[in-house]
Amino acid sequence: MGWIFFNLLYSFVENIQALPQGAQGGELRFVNHVVIKLFGNLNFLLLMVCPILTMKLFSEEKKDQSIDLYFSSPLGDWQLVAGKFLAAFFMGAFILCSTLVFPVILFMVGIKDYSFVASGYLGLLLNLACYLAIGLFASSTTKSQVIAALLSFVLIMGFWLVSWVMQLSSNYFLIEVLKQATMVSHYENFVKGMVGTHSFVYYLTFSGFWLYLTKKVLEARTW
């Protein structure tokens, strides 16, 4: 990400120098060319990292049969799922904290408006929660870490593909339905500074749905 950030800055400076005198623009041009693209790449990074963070949370314990210790303890299924999920979430948030050097650099180059940065990081954390919820579900369905990681990656990528399908359709109603059904559209709103209540509801519902499925998979042992 540091390499990508450096190249975004370098490309922006070259483009500005190529513009006619007096047409350099301002912070808005910088946000469009650097900040928004940076958060797009950070989101792609989560797509690669989250399956790795979650692939062994349940699958390894199923393989070693150590998960029976949880089932024989006073812990409820919701407590077990929430504990695994929060552990992965804080680990992912810690990884994202390593990118906070980028806002510091933006401050050093004279960027004063941090609303895009704040909303972008908020969108990243919400996306992180969604990706981890999917990964946790994938890990609970198998004893293989590799299969869990691949299944998680395929499910997350499936929601990305929905956003690409929108670009191929000319049906306005279908496009609006798909736009509300995929996290990519909601994340783009956050990156652009358009934070809406409906997006928070979507993220909470989406994460809760996959955590609920994980709980149902764990309950299958009693069927």
Structure description:
With 223 residues, the chain is an all-alpha fold. It has one domain. The model has no long low-confidence stretch (mean pLDDT 84).
Classify the secondary structure makeup into a structural class: mainly alpha
End-to-end span in angstroms? 46 Å
Name the helix and strand elements from N-terminus to C-terminus, one letter apiece.
HHHHHHHHHHH
Poorly predicted runs of 5 or more residues = none
**The number of domains:** 1
Q: List how many beta strands DSSP finds.
A: 0
Q: How large is the share of residues in beta strands? A: under 5%
Helix content range: over 70%
Task: Write down the overall geometry.
Answer: globular
Average pLDDT works out at: 84
From the structure provided, what is the oligomeric state, counting identical versus distinct chains? Answer: single chain
Radius of gyration: 20 Å
Number of helices: 11
**Largest sheet composition:** none
